[in-house]
Amino acid sequence: MSRRKPPVGRTIGRYLAVTALAAVLLLMLFPFILVALNSFKTPSEYAASGPLSLPVGLYLKGLIGFWHRVDFTNKLANSAIISLSVAVLGVTLSLLNAFALGIGRVKGRVALVVIFIMANTLPQEALAYPLYYFVKAAGLYNTQLSVILIFMVIQGAFGTYLLTSVFSAFPREMLEAALVDGCGKTRLLFQVVAPVTMPTLAVLFTFFFIWTWNEFFLPLIMLVSDSRQTVPIAISTLQGQHSMDVTTTSASALLGLLPAILFFALFQRTLTRGITAGSIK
To answer: Rounded CA gap, 40 and 43, in Å?
Structure first.
């Protein structure tokens, strides 16, 4: 029995949709491709051919020069430590807060959720002044711990709001059955709620890591020592008021992007599962 062919109009529509998506993908990848191309050009080659030409060879002096100039190994380690710490602590804080608000149903939970929503709308520029004096008073200025604590709370505010909405729809029958079987609050959290919502927690972990990795403004204020600064701050040191080496700057941007892209690629499957988990009952 022959299979029925789809209508011609539907087939054309699919091809058009795929073509449009491919065009959007190319448009989104264009800045990264441009940075990658100019990272391997000599300054004279860039000046002669412009940014859109292909490099004649692999010019690596820009990458190597930037690496040694800013001690990129140290900056890479600083960013990794801060981002991983914020991701782990931020997810943990979000989980504990959301468990109390979404499942524990504490008094005033609506007002608390509204506060967390408002916290997400505050720009970092408005937080810089009070955070600076708070960190100075606590004796944490110019330490990585100050940045970790700040972004743990900032990311945790978003994670609390998101997880609270997820936990509010958690099956009450499952919770009641666990409590009847003698499961305490701690076991309920770590043996019932957390495993079920693990895909959502993995999404938060991935986002918290990438968001913290790309942060520039607050780390610039809190970390004044060169040995404690992060990758985005190191990249900014190449831009002067009157001059800028475009090829070296492109090389630095490429080195700054690659770790975040690699991290995203490693957790892509987990991220996809977490996003689609809510659509499958």
So the answer is: 10
Would residue 138 count as lying in a domain? yes
226 in Cβ contact with 75 (< 8 Å) = no
- Work out how many domains the chain is built from and give that number: 1
Name the pTM for this structure: 0.84
Q: State the CATH number of the domain containing residue 147.
A: 1.10.3720.10
202, 217, 111: which is closest to 154 by C-alpha?
217
d(CA 164, CA 62): 47
Residue 128 lies in a domain: yes
DSSP 14-47: HHHHHHHHHHHHHHHHHHHHHHHHHHTS-HHHHH
How far from 72 is each of 42, 83, 129, 224, 251, CA to CA, in Å? 21, 16, 29, 16, 12
- CA dist., res. 280 & res. 168, Å (int): 17
Rounded alpha-carbon distances, angstroms, from residue 162 to 44, 85, 277? 50, 20, 14
Domain span at residue 201 reads 71-237
Q: Is residue 51 part of a domain?
A: no
* Distance spanning both ends of the chain, measured CA to CA: 35
pLDDT tens sequence for the chain (281 residues): 455 655 656 678 788 888 999 999 889 889 888 888 888 888 888 888 888 888 888 888 888 888 988 899 999 999 999 999 999 999 999 999 999 888 877 777 788 888 888 888 888 888 899 999 999 999 999 999 999 999 999 999 999 988 988 888 887 788 888 878 778 888 888 888 888 888 889 889 989 999 999 999 999 999 999 999 999 998 887 765 445 677 888 888 888 888 888 887 777 766 666 555 544 34
Residue 278 falls within a domain, yes or no? no
Cβ(242)–Cβ(256) below 8 Å: no
